[in-house]
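Researcher: Good morning. I'm working through a list of sequences from a screen, and I'd like to move beyond sequence-only analysis. For each chain I'm collecting a predicted structure so we can compare shapes side by side. This is the next one on the list. No need for commentary yet; just the structure.
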Amino acid sequence: MGIYSAPNSWSTLQLRLVSALLVITLASCAAPVVLEPMPEHETSRIPFSSPAPEPAIIRSQLASIQYTIQVGAFSTAERAAAYAAGLMRKGLDAYYFIDEDGLSKVRFERFETRQGARRRGSELQALGWIDDFFIAQPVLNRNQIDPQAALRNNLVQTAGRFIGTPYRWGGESARRGFDCSGLTMTVYRLNGLDLPRNSRAQFSSGTPIQRDDLQKGDLVFFATDGLKRVSHVGVYTGGGKFIHAPGQGKRIRVASLSNGYFNRRYMGARRYF
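Model: Good morning. Structure tokens for this chain:
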């Protein structure tokens, strides 16, 4: 009789358990790992960088000056005025200004491209109307986070360069001194906005603004010729003040809207952007 040996029940159980564990392990490796959501208070620990805000765009009712021609660098405003007057007699839309370096210079016309401006400058050189020139590009503060606020400050700062100056206009009003609208036109054009030359045209070009809503860079208008029509204009600087060119024999200065003379003759304000 042969000897029968019963299978070891404990060894069999161990083998089955090992097989089961192997199957579970292989299955878990193949399955995707699911992570539990991080508690809200933990998310603040994760560093991140927010995208920089897009700079706003200045939307103006005035045409922008992309490029213009600049000539001359005069030690006195009178010489620059005479030079601008000569160009105007030739039909060019010229104006002079006091630059940051204290010299008086002349600009004229506006162009959409640098090439167009350079071509026109070369033509005028060939005619003998101008000598050396370069192409200027007024800046509209497009790269500022708040370009409108930057433009307002620039307008006031530009107007401030003329305070105390017996500014003589180099055009039709040369005999009676610098025309008030010539100052505002020049200030705006130096900042890239093609403001009309005449105060009444400036008045009709902008958006009416209530006196309580005035901001820096707005234009304020007055009737100073005895008639109920616009005849004077200045650049509002904030705090109830404005910069203007009073007229012949007077220097560009700061005045107050609350002044009795201007308060009685106030016609309104205009905004262009």
